[in-house]
Design brief:
mainly beta; eight-stranded antiparallel barrel; elongated; about 260 residues
């Protein structure tokens, strides 16, 4: 029995070594043809914001970024012998999240009442918002190598929303329903009302990204990528919030090149 176990372990070890050697050979052959592969891991910080700032938002009272992790794999094809110009296609699993508090005036709002129904109107007062977007992103960027260590990249991306949260509460203010001339409901002395627009988030988002990468060692890279959304995070027919909101985030981390 011991001999069988030993022989099995040796066979598995030999197969593993052979598979590793074959994998290394494939990577080397791809490199000679102008291909490079990389995996990345990093964190994102930023916010989902309207541009320009609308008159309804009178002040941003607090901002708290949440832990937002991004994991990415990409493949780069260099088009010249000096590897100056290339094209990178990647696949990134990422989170974009934040929590803010703001003071607003005449801000479109739908809140839940005590009976579980929804009351829609115009809100003036405090608003707390939690935003979290879990996305599967496909970037396609052009690369330019400045030197043996520095590379710049720029291009579009498209994202699919895997899970989204846009919710919060209103406090210390009043709601007029159905419009500014309607009846007034006060919220004071710690009373709040909640809202949730998560079901109104758009499934597909797109934008541009600008990045830089520094090769610290032979296989280890340090990178930074700014992503700027160009379409509203909400669906086209959602009109409670009357202005568009765009995700703008900076992702920084480390990469390993094969």
């Amino acid at each position: 029995m011991k001999k069988i176990i030993i022989l099995t372990a040796l066979l598995l070890t030999m197969l593993s070594v052979q598979a590793q050697q074959e994998s290394n050979r494939t990577i080397k052959q791809s490199y000679l043809r102008g291909w490079e592969y990389e995996v990345r891991a990093g964190v994102s910080i930023g916010g989902t914001a309207p541009l320009p700032m609308p008159v309804e938002i009178r002040s941003i009272d607090s901002y708290s970024p949440s832990l937002a992790i991004a994991i990415e794999g990409n493949a780069t094809k260099w088009f010249d012998a000096n590897r100056k110009w290339g094209l990178t296609v990647g696949l990134r699993l990422e989170n974009k999240s934040m929590t803010t508090e703001a003071t607003v005036k005449n801000y479109g709002m739908k809140i839940f009442n005590d009976q579980g129904g929804v009351v829609e109107g115009i809100w003036t007062g405090g608003v707390k918002t939690k935003t979290k977007l879990s996305l599967l992103t496909l970037p396609v960027v052009a690369d330019y190598k400045l030197s043996s260590r520095w590379t710049l990249s720029f291009g579009p991306y498209i994202s699919y929303l895997l899970e989204g949260d846009f919710s919060g509460n209103v406090y210390e203010g009043h709601l007029r329903t159905p419009d500014q001339s309607g009846s007034k409901v006060e919220f004071a002395n710690g009373n709040i009302a909640t809202y949730d627009f998560s079901d109104e988030l758009r499934n597909f988002q797109w934008g541009l990204q600008l990045g830089g990468e520094w090769r610290a060692f032979k296989h280890l890279n340090v990178y930074g990528t700014l992503t700027w959304g160009l379409n509203d995070i909400f669906q086209k027919d959602f009109d409670t919030i009357t202005f568009a909101m765009y995700p703008i985030y900076l992702n920084v981390g480390f990469g390993y090149s094969f």
